[in-house]
């Protein structure tokens, strides 16, 4: 694999970690390519089940562990943002004040009539 092909793969990758390019395929599997040794590749499910590989056992265990940690971290982050907790924290950390109807308080408090 020449440098142009490596650049194309790394540019299309969803993420690159520890020299491995992780790319989601059209059928939602994960393709992993070692950018230092491009003949070392892996195809696995999103759950981490290996379908095909040209990696040795040591490299395979490194990639599987890396993917498992990333998957767990991304899943936790997704749950955090999906729960609305992140929005509540952001609003609490802001110094802006808002009325219940969403209008921003500017200057004095508006009169209640």
Q: How many DSSP-defined strands?
A: 5
**Total helical elements:** 3
Shape: elongated
Kindly provide the radius of gyration, computed on alpha-carbon positions and rounded to a whole number of angstroms. Answer: 23 Å
Order of helices and strands: HEEEEEHH
How is the largest sheet built, in terms of strand order?
1-2-3-4-5
Walk me through this protein's architecture:
The chain has helices at residues 3-12, 57-82, 85-93, and strands at residues 15-17, 20-24, 30-34, 41-44, 50-53. It is α+β, with helices and mostly antiparallel strands. The longest helix is centred in the middle third of the chain and has 26 residues, at 57-82.
Topology:
Layout: H1 3-12, E1 15-17, E2 20-24, E3 30-34, E4 41-44, E5 50-53, H2 57-82, H3 85-93
Antiparallel strand pairs: 1-2, 2-3, 3-4, 4-5
Key terms:
5-stranded antiparallel beta sheet; elongated; 113 residues; alpha+beta
Quick gist of this model?
The protein has 113 residues and is of the alpha+beta class. It has helices at residues 3-12, 57-82, 85-93; strands at 15-17, 20-24, 30-34, 41-44, 50-53.
